[in-house]
Write a structure and sequence with these properties.
Chain A is mainly alpha-helical. Chain A has helices at about 5-20, 35, 40-55, 60-75, 80-90, 90-100, 125-150, 155-160, 165-195, 205-235, 250-270; strands spanning about 110-115, 120-125. The chains are: A mainly alpha, B alpha/beta.
């Protein structure tokens, strides 16, 4: 099978993305500042930062929040280049594209020129609006990414309970998280099994057939697994209402951090 | 240790009379099974693949129900209706623990710790009691470093240990195990066998399905051989069963093995009985 085959590229690329984005918890296991905070406190404080970024129109306040986010990343043992790559990828660049036309909006002209008789002006108000928009997006995205990479995903799931989401939904989400990895492994192995037996390039149509067969086979396996998992739950006493273990603990450090965040929030809000 | 609450019928825990089961009503999996299992016994079910061992264990654990015949637990007939009674269901699940062949099925939570405490939480045990049992199990099975990991990050042997822990934490009086040593290395197999023997010495009943003959003698007071007809072809003491090569060969539990000694080819029935000592 050729290395540039579309099936190989799709499967390998998809699985690599899945493993990198969903299962990479290496950063979350480092002993940095954010990793040491109680997850509930961390989520509340990050929500406050994001709300602040959404409601403020002040460029200095937004720049301060963005700088704070980068600082928090640094004291949480995150490499700056890695973090910037993650946060500036796609969404902020996309928002830059959206914001670009706004700099030509109505207002006091800063810079004007003519092309084929048409007059173009970059306006003060337009430029400010575009800058606020882009910094707001990058700040919010940075906080979300920072929360995501410094927190183990199952902890994030468990915290959903504080928003009164029923335990059964959280449990199902947890199971999805657990078994996506298992199925990713099955897809990878199935693909390798096909690759080991096909000694020539796969035609486009034949490749489509293989992918379709794989999807059907995976569906069949997931149905079988679903029945077995349910039996395993029953056998350990499950009676339709899932009860979950909660071992979150808020310490003095968490209270101090929350107090500092609220104080900062009030100062920024009043200014 | 009394499981059934009295000493009726010579401590019989499970009794199956002429039990039949089929999948989708047309694929027979068990045909006319008669078995009695006493409290504190070590029972092994041996047989080749597809002889109904796993189905039999699932029937014992009340996960599926017989098409025909009677299954009693402590003199009480088990059927779907009785498991609708929450009190009975909780009592039964507290007494009977099942360890699945595929640990990926049993470990469905995002972390090892959540998987282990799942059972006692559902059964209504107090958090302090669960914590105590967890600490004891961590020490016994040496799994402390696995607790915060996700099951997908574990090796097969580690998964099996965690699956066993997730059942033992319930402290069931009866342990049902489906192929507990399949795919494991010799040391992990040895550890599991030692654990089962210790549990039996503490009074627990151990019911194991396996086709791994080298573990049978140690974990069995009585052995039932399941055949291709999805029924019991013979039962008896482990020693008697394992020393009946014709029976084992007939039921695909040994194979003809040929190997070369210098220039001579040597052929004999091959069975692994003396490994893992």
């Amino acid at each position: 099978m050729k290395s540039n085959n579309f099936i190989e590229r799709s499967i390998v690329g998809g699985l690599t993305f899945l493993k990198d984005s969903i299962f990479a918890e290496e950063v979350a296991q480092r002993g940095g500042f954010l990793q040491s905070l109680d997850v509930r406190v961390k989520i509340i404080s990050f929500l406050l930062f994001i709300l602040q970024a959404l409601f403020t129109g002040s460029i200095p306040a937004l720049l301060f929040l963005y700088a704070l986010c980068l600082f928090l990343g640094l004291i949480s043992r995150i490499e700056l280049v890695f973090f910037l790559k993650r946060t500036w990828f796609f969404i902020p660049l996309f928002s830059l594209g959206i914001a670009f036309p706004a700099i030509f909006g109505p207002g006091e002209p800063l810079l004007s020129w003519q092309i084929l008789g048409a007059k173009f002006s970059i306006t003060h108000q337009g430029l400010q609006g575009a800058v606020v928009f882009v910094i707001r997006v990058i700040t919010c995205v940075s906080f979300v990414v920072l929360l995501n990479i410094t927190t183990r995903h199952f902890d994030l799931l468990k915290v959903l309970r504080i928003f009164k989401i029923p335990a059964i939904f959280i449990m199902i989400l947890g199971m999805c998280y657990r078994y996506i990895y298992l199925f990713a492994g099955i897809i990878q192995n199935t693909y390798l099994a096909i690759k080991s037996r096909v000694g020539r390039g796969v035609q486009y149509q034949q490749g489509q057939g293989m992918v379709a067969w794989n999807i059907a086979s995976l569906w069949d396996r997931s149905v079988g697994l679903n029945e077995e998992v349910y039996k395993a739950m029953l056998s350990r006493g499950y009676q339709g209402e899932a009860l979950a273990w909660n071992d979150f603990k808020i310490r003095t450090k968490d209270w101090l951090w929350l107090f500092a965040v609220i104080l900062l929030w009030i100062i920024l809000f009043l200014n | 240790m009394v499981i059934c609450g009295n000493t009726i019928m010579d401590n019989i825990i499970f009794e199956l009379k002429d039990v039949y089961f089929s999948y989708l009503g047309k694929f027979p999996a068990l045909c006319g099974i008669d078995i009695r299992i006493n409290q504190g016994q070590k029972v092994s079910i041996i047989g080749a693949n597809g002889t109904g061992k796993s189905t039999f264990l699932q029937i014992l654990d009340g996960l599926i129900f017989a098409d025909r015949g009677v299954l009693s637990f402590c003199g009480q007939q088990l059927n779907e209706e009785i498991f609708n009674d929450a009190k009975f269901s909780r009592e039964f699940r507290s007494k009977v623990g099942f360890i699945f062949q595929n640990s990926d099925v049993q470990l469905f939570c995002p972390t090892v710790k959540e998987d282990i405490v799942f059972g006692p939480l559902q059964l209504g045990l107090a958090k302090g009691q669960i914590q105590k049992r967890l600490e004891k199990l961590i020490a016994t099975l040496n799994i402390e470093e696995l607790l915060d990991r996700s099951p997908q990050q574990l090796s097969i042997g580690e998964k099996r240990k965690v699956a066993i822990a997730s059942t033992l934490i319930i402290d069931p009086q009866i342990l049902i195990l489906d192929e507990p040593t399949a795919g494991l290395d010799p040391l992990t197999t040895r550890n599991i066998i030692d654990l089962l023997i210790a549990e039996n010495n503490s009074g627990k009943t151990i019911i194991t399905a396996t086709h791994d003959l080298h573990i049978v003698e140690e974990i069995s007071d009585i052995v039932y051989v399941f055949g291709r007809g999805k029924s019991i072809v013979k039962s008896g003491l482990a020693n008697n069963i394992l020393n009946d090569p014709a029976l084992l060969k007939e039921n695909n539990l040994v194979h003809i093995h040929s190997h070369q000694h210098q220039d001579k080819v040597h052929v004999h029935p091959h069975v692994h009985l003396e490994h893992h000592v």
